[in-house]
Every structure is written in C-alpha cells, then in structure tokens.
Specification:
The protein is of the alpha+beta class. It contains 16 helices and 7 strands. Strand 5 and strand 6 form a beta hairpin.
C-alpha cells in the first residue's frame, strides 16, 4: 500500500503525564475485539478489574465504563494503569492509534494527527512554513473498497488545487478561503454526477479573480447567529465551552484591534488540516460541499474565539485544540452540523464568503 501523511506527522510522540489535557477524560474508550480477547487472558487482581469495568453502551459498543467521567485506568498521576501493568501492546486500538487518524482508499491510505490532542496541535501549529505531504510504501494489505478509481484520482487533483489555493500567500487568508469555497462550489455538483472533465476544467481556473458578492451586514448577522446556535447546541464535554462560544458570538472582527496578519499561516494550517482530513472522504459519499462548508464555518468560529480573548499564540493553539476536541470527536456532533449545513440557507457559500469577507 501507499500511505500519505503531512510532513509533521512523524514528529509526534505522546508526552503522557506532561500533557496539559488528557484524552482519557470525557470520552468513553471503545475496546476492539482483538484487545478484548487479550484481556480475557489477564489473570489476578488486574484481570478482575478489567472484567469489572467493561460494559456495553447504548450504541452497542464495548467500552471501559468511565469513573467520574474518566477512563478507569487513568491514574491520578496522568499515566495509564493498563500501560504500566501490561505494556503498550495491551492498549486497545483506540488508545494505540489516537491522536493519529487513518482513512483507507483501497490500495492507498492517509494518516494524520488530530488537532484535538494538545501535543499534536502544538506540532501542527509550531512552524510558519507551508505544510507539505509525503507518500511511502507500506507492508499493509489493501482494504476492500468499491470507490470509483476515476473519481478518486480526480479528487486527488482537486484537493491539490484546494491546498494550493489555501497556501497561496500572495493573497490574504480571507481571499484564499473565499477562493477555496468558490472552487468547491464549482466542482461539487460534478462530483455527484461524475463530471470529471468539468472538474478538470475547474482545476485550471483562477478563483482569485472570480467576482464575490458585496458584503451585507444583515446577512452576516443572520448567518452568525445560526452558526453559533448550532455550535452551542452540540453535546459538550465541558460547560465552559458553551460560555466561550457565547462570549465570542458578538465579537466584531471587522472592528477588532486583533491583528491576524502576522499569524495568518496558522489559519492556513487550520484550513489545510481540514482539507487533508475530510476532502477525500467525498469519494465515499460524493458530498464535498458540506465538508468545505464545515471547514469555513469552523474557521469563522475559531477566529472569533481567538479575537474574543485577544489570544497570544499558545492560547490560540489551546482554543483550536479545544474546538477540535469538542466538535470533531463526537459523531453525533459532526452529524448534526453536517445536516444543518446541508439544509440551512445560512450555510450557503454566499453567506460563508460574506462572513469571511467581513474584514
């Protein structure tokens, strides 16, 4: 197989008890079948503890039952009791893999790091240099798939175009995201109807010269209320997250003294992260536009959160990491947002561009 990953991917190493957050709190850890077989062979008091904390949740998944909203194996020191007692190989697939994420496309795969991990977020946001990508051969076996090969390779070209747009530093980040949205809007219907020739034509189009609608304060007010309403209605790990969203909702970026020019590359990295993680999954559902809308709406929310606190770099990274943890790691949250973005006129490309063009 061939595996593609961002250039920062191999820099990650878990910092364990030195981490300012923990991936063992707030989430129920799902145990895979292979790991469960291993746990049945663990004897003694620790084997009994494993048996005692395993349960089946409302979704039918086998999980380690949380204790005070924490994994039962998370020690007060911040270390993992499972790791200490049985070693790294004893960890279930979820714990071994996180914060890495992997998507299979038949004979190819893509791996990356999730922004929801503080150390991963720090690595992703640490350098001002453009993110690049590498591809290596692996010994993994191809995964069965029914994706259309022509669609897959056309989407690969389209994603490269999208990332090139987002990394074109001759333009402001606002201009780049608007151009990305216009490009996504143009190719989305052709993905659904296998219009590969039209997609290739769009790849050769200059979206920075495309005319944008004039800014409208009325439309901006209606859209931003809808966005924050949706994001505050999500299932939350911490109540303080809702307070942060409510505080940021009325932050007027256009009048803000919060200067972003010196760190526009952080928002560039944010958008490239979203595009790398989600763009190619359109090969499965042919719904590219919702993925583009999610990236743009997330940028709008995160930018307001940053401006609300007049945040310095370390704090900006913390806010971005918290956003990812609260939003991306709940299937219910992502499903709710995607449904709203498909149905609501407030998430039209025109409205998103209107809000991004605010400053």
């Amino acid at each position: 197989m061939k595996n593609t990953f961002p250039n920062y991917y191999k820099s990650f190493s878990c910092i364990a008890d030195k981490c300012p957050d923990t991936c063992c709190a707030g989430w129920a850890v799902v145990a895979d079948e292979e790991s469960l077989k291993k746990y049945k062979n663990v004897s003694g008091a620790f084997g009994q503890k494993i048996t005692d904390v395993i349960s089946v949740d409302c979704d039918g998944d086998t999980v380690f039952t949380p204790v005070n909203n924490r994994c039962p194996f998370l020690l007060d020191s911040g270390l993992c009791e499972m790791y200490i007692e049985l070693g790294h190989e004893s960890l279930c697939c979820t714990c071994r893999q996180y914060p890495r994420h992997i998507t299979y496309f038949g004979a190819r795969s893509e791996t990356g790091l999730s922004l929801s991990c503080p150390e991963a977020a720090r690595i992703i946001m640490q350098s001002s240099e453009p993110i690049t990508f590498e591809t290596e051969n692996t010994l993994d076996f191809p995964q069965p798939t029914d994706i259309e090969p022509e669609l897959y390779f056309t989407l690969l070209d389209a994603r490269k175009k999208a990332i090139d747009i987002l990394q074109n530093r001759d333009f402001s980040i606002n201009q780049r995201i608007c151009a990305f949205l216009l490009f996504s809007q143009d190719i989305a219907p052709h993905i659904k109807h296998s219009g590969y020739k039209q997609i290739k034509n769009a790849i050769n189009t200059d979206y920075f010269t495309k005319e944008k609608s004039a800014y409208s304060q009325r439309r901006a007010n209606g859209a931003i209320k809808k966005y924050f309403s949706d994001f505050t209605n999500l299932e939350m790990l911490e109540p303080s997250w809702k307070d942060a969203l409510l505080s940021a909702q009325d932050e007027d970026i256009s009048c803000s003294a919060y200067e972003t020019k010196s760190f526009e590359w952080e928002y560039e990295h944010l958008m490239v992260y979203f595009v790398f993680r989600y763009f190619m999954t359109a090969v499965f559902d042919k719904d590219l536009l919702t993925k583009a809308k999610f990236a743009a709406a997330s940028f709008i929310i995160i930018r307001k959160l940053h401006a609300c606190e007049n945040a310095e770099k370390e704090r900006r990274t913390q806010i971005t990491q918290r956003f990812s943890k609260e939003v991306e790691h709940s299937a219910d949250n992502m499903d709710y947002l995607h449904k709203s973005m498909k149905k609501s006129r407030f998430y039209s490309i025109q409205n998103l561009i209107n809000l991004i063009w605010e400053k």
